[in-house]
Design brief:
alpha+beta; four-stranded mixed β-sheet; 3 helices; 6 strands; about 25% helix; globular
């Protein structure tokens, strides 16, 4: 859909910084933080690492979009969208002993499957 050799990693969290810039870009300019404290940013880095390893080892093919499982399950999809049938993979969930999962998706498929209501 985007026509570029890029992908997005999405997590969620609350804005915890009120007097700082709303946007931070990493030194490598390949990660963006929207000022969520700790865990969501750590999740983003952990998912990115797991994705790169999974693509290198052939665990899954590259996708446009990788979403933390909690973020993915928080989206409102059309009733016809089979959320449980979407490809997902494990990742090390930072700062906790809980297992984490991320979902691989096509950006176009996610956009067309969102419930507009």
């Amino acid at each position: 859909m985007l026509g570029l050799d890029i992908y997005a990693v999405v997590t969620q969290g609350s804005n915890e910084y009120y007097e700082d810039s709303l946007l931070h870009i990493s030194k490598n300019q390949n990660h963006i933080s929207l000022n969520s404290l700790g865990l969501p940013f750590a999740q983003l880095l952990s998912i990115d690492s797991a994705v790169r390893k999974a693509i290198r080892t052939g665990t899954h093919a590259p996708a446009d979009l990788y979403m933390d499982g909690n973020f993915f399950r928080s989206l409102r999809f059309l009733p016809t969208f089979a959320m449980d049938d979407q490809p997902k993979n494990a990742y090390r969930l930072p700062m906790t002993d809980e297992p984490g999962s991320y979902f691989c998706a096509s950006l176009g498929k996610i956009i067309e499957s969102l419930d507009p209501n």
